[in-house]
Each structure stands twice: as C-alpha cells, then as structure tokens.
Amino acid sequence: MAEIKKVREKWGSKLGFILAAAGSAIGLGNIWKFPYIAGENGGAAFIFIYLICIVIIGLPVLIAEVLLGRTTQRNPVGAFKKLSDSKFWIGVGSLGVIAGFLILSYYIVIAGWSLGYIFEAFNGSFFEFNQSNTSAAHFNDLIQNVTWNVGFTIAFLLITMIFVYSGVQKGIERGSKILMPILLLLLVISAVKGISLPGSEKGISFLLEPNWSLVTPSSILVALGHAFFTLSLGMGAMLTYGSYLGKENNIFSASTQIVFLDTIIALLAGLAIFTSVFATQQDPSAGPGLIFHTLPVVFTKMPGGYIFSILFFFLLTIAALTSAISLLEVVVSYFVDEKGWRRHSAVIVFGGVTFLIAIPSALSFNVLSDFHIFGLNFFDLADYLTSNIMLPLGGMLISIFVAWIWGFDKALVELKQGAENVFSNYPFVISAWKIFVKYFAPVLIFLVLLNSLGVL
Description:
With 456 residues, this protein is mainly α. It has a single domain, classed as Orthogonal Bundle (Hydantoin permease). Helix content is 76%, strand content 0%. The chain is built from 18 helices and no strands. Helix 7 crosses helix 8 (168-196) and helix 10 packs across helix 18 (427-452). The longest helix is centred in the last third of the chain and has 39 residues, at 378-416. The radius of gyration is 21 Å and the shape is globular. The protein starts with 13 loop residues before the first helix and ends with a helix.
C-alpha cells in the first residue's frame, strides 16, 4: 500500500513569515544590548559600522539559511540530509537543533523575569526605589526566591507552548501578526515619551551622535558579532521558518525587510531607554543590569512612570516571546519531519523536556548558585556553549555548505524562484551575495568565533 504523504504546514502569507522571522530576530538583546553597545562604541559611528556588517555578514547568511529551508521544506537536520549524504553535514543540522533547544532552556528563565516584572510594575513595587542599588537588591531577592523564579519560568514556557501547539498559521503566524504591531506601537510610544523628557538630548547624543574616537578594532568585532547574533542565525530558527515558505516568495526582499525591522526596533528601543535614563540622571553603563536594576528607578522619577513601567515590561515580554516561539518550533519541526510525530505531541513532550533542562538554569541563582562546571554555573555554561561556540560555528558552516558543498549553481536556481526581478534588474546583488557568502561570511564569522572564545 502506498504511503500517504502528510501535507506540511506553510505560512498563510509573506507578511506572516516576515513578522514571525523578525519576531525571532527581535529578542531581549535588541531592547538593551544593541543600544548599549552602540553608545559605548561611538554612537552613530558604531551604527554605521554595524550596518556595513549586516550587509556583508548578517543579510547574506540570513538569505542562505532561509533558502536552505525553502528549498528542502525541512527542519535543519532534514535540510542537510536532503542536500548531502555526509554525516558531517547532517551533524551540522543537528547542531542547530541542539543549540536552539539549549538556548530556549535558559532564555525562558530571563523571559520569566520580564513576565514577573509586569506584575511588579502593576503592584507599584518600583516606587519603593530611589536608587539603583535598592532596585538591584530587590531583583536579587526575587531571583533567589525559587517559587518566583521557577514559577514565572513555567508560566512563560506555557504561553510559548500555546502558540507553537496551535500550528504555523493559527499559532505562530496569527500570534506574530498581533504581537509584532503591539511591540512596535509600544516602542514608538515609549520612544516619544523618552524624547519628550527634559534632559533627553543627552540620551539622543549618547546613541546617535557619531564619536569616531570611541571606535576601535574591538568595536568592529563587536559590530560583526552583533550583526550575526541579532538575526538568530546558526540556531536553525530562520532555516525552519524558511521551510514553511512557498517557492513564489522573494527571499531577497523578505530577508531585507526582516533586517530592516530588526534594526529599526533596536534603535527605537535605544531612544526609549537612553533618553529616559539620561533624563532621570541614571547610569547608562549598567549593561545587562540596565533592565532590572536601573529602569525601575527611572520609572519612579519620570511623569507617568507607573503606566510606562507596565508598558515597557509588557513589550519586553513580547520581544522574548516571539523569539522563544521560534526556538521551540525548531525542535518541534525536527520531530514532526524526521520522526513522524504529531505537532501536539511534540510540543507537549519537548515543552516538558525544556522545562526540566531549564530548572538547573533557574536554580543557578539560588539553590545551585554554588554548583559550578568549569567555573561556570549551569545558566552561564549553557549561555557560553551556545553563544560563544555553537551559534558562530553553525553559521560559519552554513555559509561554507551553501557556497562550497551545495554550490551556487544549484542554490541560484532555487533562489531565482520568486525573485526573477532581482536576477534581471539587479544582477550585481546576486554577484555580491555570492562573494559575501563564499568569502566574507566564513572568514568574518570565524573571527566572531575567536572573539567569542576570547582568542582575539
């Protein structure tokens, strides 16, 4: 008896794909990290360098990942399996699935903090803080509380599972069409509010005034790294999302729009945060602690701070959610495609497994704070392995695979579908993409890998 082929899910529209993929790229790092590293490394001068890095490394690899997914209509493992018999390259696909799974396990812990801070904002807890050290002490008390920490981790994971459980169109796409416009609207409102505060011009200068004296070789490496990491490359998310695309979609234009949204939202977040921070005379160099240590104090000192504290942590949670959805989808897609699982079963089982792996990360700040592996607690170890090794290694190998193993002759045949106007009207774009993927991306991502490992 002939085997009945199961129809694979697809995006309902190109807009749905763009918003979902942009949501994957736009995460917690966009809200605090990009604005901070931009201000620290020369403001507009750094942004200019970053945009160049996006063009020569981020966008080309993004196009390559989406193309692999659309061509094969498979998850990362299935994609490499379909295009190569080599166990090595199939292993590269597995690396992406494992990386996404590990990232999700500790990402939901941080996202849980953001969700918990929505309730802190509602309760008016921030108005007890006049200085960032008291706010930081309150944050440390919360994450040392096992019930609070693990409880909000579970809550955030359950919300993520609901979207993925509902499917590509009814869950991920529909959710992205609702969440992304809300995220953008809240950021615009927050940015306008920040700019309107007395003293906000210092924050605008911090972010947007070019200061070339702060640009160093290290700044260029930081820009390269962020251009790669900000687009969720190397973790299988973009490849998986690309696999739900139809052949009629223009990958060039879709990828460009994803990059544009990612960059615009990072800049809006910078305007919202740093105008408020400078206007209330807080420390802009708080780095990762800026969100949970400094901003609660900012809200106490600004007019309408109660409302804006709720809005901010709500938008932060949305940013985390759209990224977490894509990470869980990578794992679910693998088991649906390769193992023949039903989507609902895969979501429930691996949502549960994710929680079990997340527990040590959540307990790294309390019960397991003294437990270390190679000098790192479980949370930091998972972060180090994925961010410093697995992601840049995966991204570098993907660019090598497309350029040197699969080959441009085959790749361009697939890329042309839906993008005939680019091939006919802008042939230099195709030539540039080939050069960037073949030469620039592998070398530059290798530098990112070395820098992540502390070699450079």
